[in-house]
Amino acid sequence: MPPFLSRLAIVATAAALAAGLITPTTAQATARPGTRTGALRWAALGDSYTAGVIEATGDETAPLDGCARTVGSYPEIIRRDLGSLVDLRNAACGGAATENVYATKLSPIGRPLPPLGTDPNAPYPPVPPQIDTVTPDTDLVTVGIGGNDLGFGGILKDCVELGATHLGQGTPCKDKHDAGLPDLMRRLNADYGTMLDALHAKARSARVITVGYPHLIPESAGLCRFGNLLQFGTFTTGDLSWARTAILEPLNGIIAAQTAHHQDTFVDLYPSTAGHSVCDADHWLDGVLTSVIPLEYAVVHPNAAGQAHTATLVEDAVLGG
Asked: What is the reported pTM?
């Protein structure tokens, strides 16, 4: 049994003992001599897809540092599910890229995100690199990151604006951004590998679990209605298909490949979220807006159902070892 799972089993045994569910002899058989006891030390790292950020994932949790971690984000759901079994340090932050995990500070912008508003408590001071929450005795690191390395937020904004000016025709966003994607993908591949190297160097005994991105865009982009702000607004159909095959799927491919190269565990959200895209009736991601009245932004992020689904898969990976 891996060391971090041994500790998880021991904490569970202790909890059961306290509740009078098992006898001391059983507990003594479970806890091997020399094995360290205590809650699983877990660092949750990532971007807005990990932090939660949007109003559809609930209120923000402390500290209110502009990273907009929410009560409905998957690390916080798992924290509640596992209770005393885990000691979570949640450093995920909206707007983070891989370098903000392993090397550089980030100046968070809070919520709501521009252009729909500005956080009344902004500006916030820079937050340290997320790796600062990882210590040599950390048992588990989960990390969901990568989209901001490709400038996904800026591309989303351009696609909405260009689709409007082209009246929903053609692929104006692809025409603007496609040529630059190979360099961005190469840089992400290198930075993602550097990030995983840094995490392993900081916590040599920790298990690392990476989390990919869900099925934002349906296989048939024609399912999305042009001009619908609860979906992708004025994205053209052609640009939606391009964004899925040229950005989202290669992004997940890089995460999967680097994870395998480092012998870590990859939680692949993509297959299980098919049929739950922004444009599906049972959608686990919200589009440009969550709602019009009241006005609630989403800027294409997982809603409460999407975060709950991610929590289930990540928790299964943690417990399944």
From this structure: 0.89
